[in-house]
C-alpha cells in the first residue's frame, strides 16, 4: 500500500514536518473523493452506463482544453464563496445552511444595480454592484444570527426556512417590479446588466476567480491573525469559556452570520456579473448546498476551500459533456458529492481503511440541541 | 411562583399548555364563525388542513422518536423524499399500492439505519449526518427519476360508515385516505409507547441520562438504533403519503422543506406526540388557508407572498418557543461507553 508507506516514511523523517502535516490534513479528503468516485462508478455500472467513458467525458469537459478550463474556473468561483460562507460560520459553531438564500439576494441586488444605474465608469459600476450584493447577503445573514442570539431559534431550521422565503421573494421581484420588459419575453428574469457592471474574463481567466482567491486569503487572515477571528474561533470551540473570558458571545454570533452572509452574497453577485449577466430564478439553485460539501471537504479551512471548490466546480463544468457524449444524467454528480460529504464526515471509515492516525485539530460541534445555549 | 410539579396534575397540565388552549379556543371560534358564513368552503379547508398536516405529523413523530433517544434527525426531509420516490417506483413497476407503501416505509427505515450508524456508531456530528442524508436523497432521486413515468392510481378516501355522515367532523376526520388515518393512529400509538410502556421509559432514559441508563443495564446503542429506525419508517410513511396519496406522482425535490417544518412542529409540540399533532394541525391549517387564498382567487396578493406563509410561521414559532422549549437533556450528544 503506497499510502501506508508514505505515511510511515514521513513519520520516520522528523525534519519533514510540513510534508507530514500536509499529508495528515489532505489524505482523508483526497481518499474521500476517490472512494466517492469509486462508489459512483458502481452506481453507474448498476444503472447500465460505462463509468470509464463517463468519467473520461467528465474530465474532458472540465479540463480538456482552455475553454473547458475557463468554464471550470467560472463554475468554481461562486462555489468558493459559498464554501467560504459555510466554513466561516462553522468556525463559530454555526451551521449556515442559508448560504443559498443569502446568495440569491446577493445575485438579484447585483443585477438590479447592474441594469438600473447608468453612466458610471466600468470599474466603479462593477464594484458598486458587487458591494450591493455583498451588503444584501450580509443583511439576510444577520436575520438568523439575531434570531439565534435573541430568541434561541436554532439557525439550522431558520436558515432553511429563510432559503424558501428568499426563493419566493426573488421570484416575485424577477417576475414583478424588476422583470425584463423587452418585447417577447415571458420568462421571469431581470433585464441584462450593463457591460460596465460585468466582471469580465481576461484571456480566458475569469477575474471573479481571482477575487475569490483574494477573499479566501483575507478570510484565512481574518480568522487566524485578528482579534475578531480569535473571538470567533473561541466561541466556536466553547461558548461558555468564551463568555467567561469576556468575549461578547451574542455580538460574535451575529457578526459571524453577517460576514458569512456577506461572503455568500458576493458569490451570488459574481455569478450575476461574471457568468449569467442577469438574475434569473433557478440559475443559482444548489450553490448554497454545495457550499456545505465544499466547506467540509476543505476541512473548514479558507485555503482548503479552494481545491475543494475546484473539484465540485469541475464536476459541474464537465457534467454537460458527460451527459452529451456518455449519455449519463447530470445528477450523478450530486450523488458523488453526497458520497464525498459522507466520507469526509465519516473520516473514521477512511482512517480505518488507510490506517491513518487522527491529526489534532479543531473539531466542529454543531449538535447542541435546539434551545438557547 | 409555587412549584408547578407539586400542584394538582391538571393545573400543571393547564399551565404547561396554556398557550395551546387559548389558541385552540380562538381557532375553534373562528372555525364556527366561518362555518356559519360559508359551510362548504370551511369544510373543504378543514379537510385539506387535516390532510396537509399528515406528512408534518409523521415527520414530527420521526423527529421526536429520535430525539427522545438523543439522536437529532435533520435528515427527515431526505428520508421522506427518497421514500416517496421508492414508493412511486414500486407503484410504477408493480401497480400494487400496498407493496409501494411498504417499499417506501422500508426505504425510510433503511435511511434511519444509516443515520443511526452515522450518529451512534461513527459518532459523526448528527447535524452533518442528517445533511448527508438530505443531499444523498436529492442526488439519487434526481439521477434515477425519468420524466414520463406514470403511476397506476393512488390511495382513495375510505368513508368510515355512519361516522362520515356527521356534519363537519365526518367530512374532516372520517372520510380520509388510509395514510391520514394511519398518522392519527400513530400519534396515539407513539404517545402510548413513549409514556406508558417499559420501552418508552427506557427510550426517554437514554435521551435524558444515558450514563444512568447504561448503569441500569439498558443498552443505550440498541435503544438509539431502534428508535431512529422506527422514526425513519414513520418518515417513510410521510414520504409515500406525498406520492401515493396526495399527488399521485413524483416531482424532483417535492418534499419542499416539509421535513424541516416537521422539526419545528416537533419543537412546538414540546417533543410530545399529542402536542406535535396540535402543532401539525395548525401548520396544516395555514397551508390549507394558503391554498384557498391562492386558488380561491378573491385576494390580489402575489402568490409568492402567500407561498411564504408556512415558512414564516415556522420561524415565528421557533423564535417564540426556541428558548423556552426544553429538549431531552442528552439531545445530540453521542454516547461513549466507558
Short description:
Chain A is mainly α and 373 residues long. Chain A has helices spanning 2-12, 17-46, 51-63, 66-91, 99-116, 122-151, 155-175, 207-225, 227-237, 239-244, 249-276, 287-297, 305-326, 332-345, 347-354; strands at residues 201-202, 205-206.
Strand content of chain B: under 5%
CATH T-level fold name of the largest domain in chain A: ABC transporter involved in vitamin B12 uptake, BtuC
Distance between the termini of chain B: 41 Å
Order of helices and strands of chain A: HHHHHHHEEHHHHHHHH
Overall outline of chain B: globular
Strand order of the largest sheet of chain A: 1-2
Low-confidence stretches of chain A: 1-12
Q: What is the CATH first-level class name of chain B?
A: Mainly Alpha
User: Biggest sheet of chain B: strands side by side, in what order?
Assistant: 1-2
Strand residue percentage of chain A: under 5%
Our measurement of the CA-to-CA distance between the termini of chain A, rounded to an integer number of angstroms, reads 46 Å
Descriptive overview:
The complex is a heterodimer of chains A (373) and B (338). With 373 residues, chain A is mostly helical. Chain A has helices at residues 2-12, 17-46, 51-63, 66-91, 99-116, 122-151, 155-175, 207-225, 227-237, 239-244, 249-276, 287-297, 305-326, 332-345, 347-354, and strands at 201-202, 205-206. In chain A, strands 1-2 form a two-stranded antiparallel ribbon. In chain A, helix 3 (51-63) crosses helix 13 (305-326), helix 5 (99-116) packs antiparallel against helix 6 (122-151) and helix 12 (287-297) crosses helix 13. Chain B has helices at 9-16, 18-37, 39-68, 76-94, 97-121, 126-144, 169-173, 178-196, 198-208, 210-215, 220-246, 258-268, 273-296, 303-307, 309-321; strands at residues 158-159, 175-176. The longest helix of chain B has 30 residues, at 39-68. The termini of chain B are far apart. Classes of the chains: A mainly alpha (373), B mainly alpha (338). Chains A and B meet through helix 7, helix 12 and helix 14 of A and helix 6, helix 12, helix 14 and helix 15 of B.
